[in-house]
Amino acid sequence: MNEIPKQEVIRFPASRIIDVAKALSGDVRIRILEALGDQPMSVGQLAEALGVAQPTVSINVQMLEQAELVSSTLGANREKICSVNCRQILLDLPTRPGDGLHRIETIEMPIGLYADCSVQPTCGMAAADGSLIGSADDPRAFFMPERIEAQLLWFSNDGWVEYLFANPLPPGAELAELRISAELCSEAPSFRMNWLSDITLSINGHSIGTWTSPADYGDRKGKLTPERWRSGSEYGQLIEWHISSSGSFIGGKRSTDTTLAQLGLSFNEPIAVRFAVLPDAINCNGMNLFGSSFGDHPQSIKLSFVRQAQDEE
Known about the structure:
about 325 residues, Arc Repressor Mutant, subunit A, Jelly Rolls, 9-stranded antiparallel beta sheet, 4 helices, 19 strands, about 35% strand, WH_DNA-bd_sf, Transcriptional regulator, transcription regulation, Metal_resp_trans_reg, DNA-binding
């Protein structure tokens, strides 16, 4: 086995404290570090030494790898060989609000966890296996408990879904930018490749910008869409809005003059994110919203908080 040289000390910045603390908080992970103290071992050897199932060892090794406390290489028989990276760690404690967070903190919201909605037929929701949640074209399905399992939701004409996000930044932490991304497209019966729809994002009631979807995409199978799904809409486009002190943008192009300061963000208040097709939209042709197991992109709705870089403050 080729042992990876150990550093005597690894210094972690304040933004890594939570990652390292989580990695060190489990009994199995501490026992793995103990076992790896003198020599590298394979996952199978660790499982035998610790008397723990191999899948459990693999999961815990992965957590230690993510915290950069353990590294792995492939052995001669393609087995995973694990080694500790250092003898000691040094943690920099935070000295001001936000230091204990990553520069970019991201919250991913399942599409079925909306706080409120207004939809009309054609409308509906599908689960990860492609089965319908409730009945198609029945708005009541949008208020069933099973909606939390949704991986695709759609409505025609005008309507909206609104999500409430927590603000992870403590008071005093300087925010440079908000980013919101989701996979979306228009909604037509079955599908239509030439079917414009104006989809507007708003935050706390302020318009961030309108993206015009060119189609309800169904010309091919979505990369993640289950085979069972045979109802038309297959995938969308991954669209990102971002808001800074200079305005709001869609895909890097200016969309509105709404700035971060105008959003009225507060540490103790939820952030209302609404995807809507407005009644007065030029192209009022509904919306499909895709979750992490449907469409082309393995994500749900992502809201990212980008802190001001230290040298910019």
